Every structure is written in C-alpha cells, then in structure tokens.
Amino acid sequence: WMVSSILPLFANGTVLITTPLIPIETTVRALPVGAMSIETATELFTSLLATQRKPDRLAASMATRITAALERHPLTLRIAAAAIQKFGRKLEEFHALLESSAGVKGTCTSGTLVARWSPMLARVIDEAISLLDLPTLATLRLLACIAPQPAFIPLELFENRGDWNQTRACLSTLEQLELISFDSARKSVLIHRTVREVIRDRISASDL
Q: What is the C-alpha to C-alpha distance for residues 206 and 208, in angstroms, rounded to an integer?
C-alpha cells in the first residue's frame, strides 16, 4: 500500500483515499461510490434546462432517456443542457443525435481508441464545439493549449490585447456552454481537464 508508511502519523484522525483499486489491506474500510441514480441525474438535468414550467409527461420521459444516454455523468449533463438551452435545441432532436452516435467509439485524431474519457462525454463536447463560431472556437483551442492543470489562467493575459472585447464575448459563450468556468472574482479562467484533453486531441496541424 503506497501510503501505509505515513498512516501512523494520522493515528488520531481519519485518512480518506479515493482510488479505483480494491483495497487489499484488512485495516482499510472500503466505501464504494457509484453513479447517481437515474432519478437524481434526471432531476439535475431537468433543473439545468431551467424551464419555467414543469415538464409534461412526454418531455419528462425524453429528459430521462437523454439522461440515461448521457450515462448520468454530471459534466456531460451540464454541457448537454447548456447546448440545448443556448441554441434552442429540442429534446427530441438532441436525443436523436445521441441515438445516431450511440455505436460510435471515441477516437483520437490518430484513429486510436480513447480510454481517457467517456466516448459519450467526448461526443457531447464535440457537439458543443460544432455550435461555436470561429473566434470562439479559436479562443477555446488557445485556452486548451496554454491551460495548466489544475491552476487557473489569469485573464490579464488577454485584457491588454487589442481584441479584448471580442475575447470577453467568446469567454462568455464558452462559460454558458459549461466548457470553461471562472474563479469567484472572475479574474481567472479554468478549463476542465477532460474538456482540455478532448479539445487538444481534436486540434490538427491545419488548425495551428
């Protein structure tokens, strides 16, 4: 066990270790953590859609089917809901899109299978990217290339450039699509590690 040597230092406390591995020591108490239930995930997805009225039975059923297709993954649900909201997609249309790509494997630009992220998450990110205009897409690619992890990118890197007003508008669109976030003071921007990896994987030599 990699951390067994330091555990005696915490004899009067509790050490919480998160790992996909099964504990092999009898002194370790395992607490399995699973995915959200379909009910909880659907409630989250519906709340992210921010509809003014309670969805009817057909809309509720469609939201549940989309949630299941999105594998109940919070980031995937957030990006999908943001894309539906911002660009006025109908739930039926979005579900048909997911159905059409259900059997598609996630691939790198080199054609090799992706194991670093969920293929459905990558599919939803790709869909959000396809909705961006060229300046916003260029801004996202720039952030993905310069983003450290997990540090924030200071906005002062862009504020003194001549295109700050356009960049600010692009950042606003990316935030609305849940592709980036800001710190509490809105002085720095953060791009999620998985979003960054997917974007960087999609960049070709012709995009540089």
A: 6
Reported residue count of the chain is 208
The per-residue pLDDT for 193 is 85
Residue 158 and residue 167 in contact, taking contact as beta carbons nearer than 8 Å: yes
Q: Which amino acid is at 192?
A: H
- Tell me, what's the pLDDT at 115? 46
Give the C-alpha separation, 142 to 124, whole Å.
Answer: 20
Interacting residues of 16 by C-beta distance below 8 A, sequence separation 6+: none
Q: Which backbone phi and psi does 180 adopt, to 5 degrees?
A: -140, 170
Q: Taking a C-beta distance cutoff of 8 angstroms, is the pair 97, 104 a contact?
A: no
Distances (CA, A) of 83 to 87, 148, 154, 180: 6, 26, 26, 13
Question: What's the Cα-to-Cα distance from 101 to each of 31, 69, 164, 202, rounded to whole Å?
Answer: 34, 10, 37, 17
Residue at token pair 């691939």: 107
Mean pLDDT by 10 residues, the chain (208 residues): 59 67 62 78 88 73 92 91 87 87 50 59 90 94 80 87 92 94 90 88 77
**Of the candidates 58, 171, 69, which has an alpha carbon nearest to the alpha carbon of residue 127?**
69
Phi, psi of 154 (to 5 degrees): -70, 135
Residue 139, H or E segment: helix 134-146
